[in-house]
Amino acid sequence: MRIDIVTIFPTFFDVLDISLLGKARQAGIITLGVHDLRDHTHDRHRTVDDTPYGGGAGMVMKPEPWGEALDGILDGADDPVLVFPSPAGEVFTQATARELAAESHLVFGCGRYEGIDQRVFDEYAGRARVRLVSIGDYVLNGGEVATMAMIEAIGRLIPGVVGNPESLVQESHEDGLLEYPSYTKPAQWRGHEVPPVLLSGNHGAIEAWRREQSVARTARVRPDLLP
Ligand code: 6GU
Asked: Which GO terms describe its cellular component (predicted)?
């Protein structure tokens, strides 16, 4: 998979050199391009924002640098998906991560301030698949942290990125439920015991216990996830 990121903070993505995603890049599973939006400005101050038409607080990102940056990335690209992190977008879920993990080229456009001029979305919606995506009901200063979260969620679903594919299916949200509690050695720690069923060797009973824990936890913490 190829991933391009357009941002005014390119060094923010230096951390993609390390960890699981870094290994996937070294292995050639993921190719990453990070692009500085300011490289596509042509004034002395490298201006990327301006005051909103109609008035109001904050600044809006100007369309021209976005146009130049995205044109360069889309030139010769094969049917990419443009993802614009935005609190005004559809909510990113595990299902979104699965959909995007099946793509061959993702382009993330990280907005700052009060957002990007609407005409950028309109322009590229006519030329590519465009998705505005929010990572939850709270406000971030810009799309960078949201992009990082999405890339981590998507990246680990790409075959070969996570060493043991089994570990993918047992996690929170993969089956629509929250994950059951996990324990490792020692069997006693500060007076807390491991639930005896996990030491029983009875795999049927263990599976039933885990399922019951998942359902109970989901009902308690996230009843909205239950049918
Ligand atoms: Cl994707 N961007 C911003 N700026 N804030 C958010 C968000 C995205 N998702 C939730 N809050």
From this structure: cytosol
